[in-house]
Amino acid sequence: MVASRVFKILHRAMLAALFPALALAAAPAAAQSPQVTIAARQANFKKMGAAMKVLKAQLDSGAPAKEVMANAARAIALTAPQQAKLFPAGTGASAGVKTDALPNIWTDRANFDALMVRLVGETGKLQAVASSGDVAALAAQTKATGAACAACHRQFRADN
Amino acid sequence: MPFDERAAPPPRAPIWDAPVRLFHWLLVALLAFSWWSGKHHDMDWHRRSGYTILALVIFRIYWGFFGGRTARFAQFVRGPRAAFAYARALASGRYVATPGHNPVGGWSVIVMLGSLAIMVGAGLFSVDVDGLESGPLADYVSFDQGRAAAAIHHLMFNLLLGLAALHVLAVLFYLVRLRRNLITPMIHGRRRAHEDETVEDLGASGWKAVLGMVIAGVCAYAISRGLHF
User: Most buried by CB count within 10 Å: which residue of A154, B51, B83, B198?
Assistant: First the structure.
């Protein structure tokens, strides 16, 4: 039958197309190179820093735009929880990639993780306050979030 | 008792006007304070200190055109030939004191003032890694550009530290090797004059100094407000 043959070909083509996609999706969970992990967390930190700058600029301006601030806060809150997972062992300066991550992240891990939890908590609050539209509260929470960034940077980041 | 002529003080000639000296020592103090406040992440004070240095730089450039004789760029910025000739004379021991900046010192003033201006300028656009602390003009640039400005700010500070060290070494060289004290004239503004020298005034005008301070203050204030009027 011609129809069943066509279906077979389509079925194979679909599998062939799906396989690389599946393989790609599975790859990061298996073993990501330190370079990729470092690049990913750096891109995330940059995204958060840029969003913080947007938030700060809005708050400093006479007329803050609520939607712009809510978007920035959401970007920060969605990115922060990814970061704790992007510091596996072997992704320090020994990986041979330029990174400001200090070695004490892996020797003082409990402290580092606690600061990551604090960051996630503060950014969650930041998103909630930003969507509420309370500018004064948002200014205070932006400071609190920045303090969480800075607290970790002072202990665990070089060039600080 | 008869007047003893030998007890008369050696003749003194003015060399640095008061605004030049004030600029110099305020800059020393504020650079130290800026370094300290930056190191301790006290960014409110770091910014205030930076705005004051900005005003100092603007004033010094103004004073380079309207100040006393030895403060003017036209008086002390000399060509490279003059600078090399002076350096050669120093090296061969034929040292002649210059009433003001010597041809090499003049260039060191330009390089230090230029580095200072770049450092302050970069600081105005700088953003910290958290995106929370920034210079007053950072709203005009992106996060990445602001980070690049911070890197330049930092680099220029290190360069300036090196230049300041070189400056102090040169002053010590004059003190030890040439037996010329350049430090106290920068405090009281006078130098030893030659016996037969006619002592001339520097011609620094008080009202021009006040006008320069007002201009510098207004400019620095406007920039500190991010140029939002």
Answer: B51
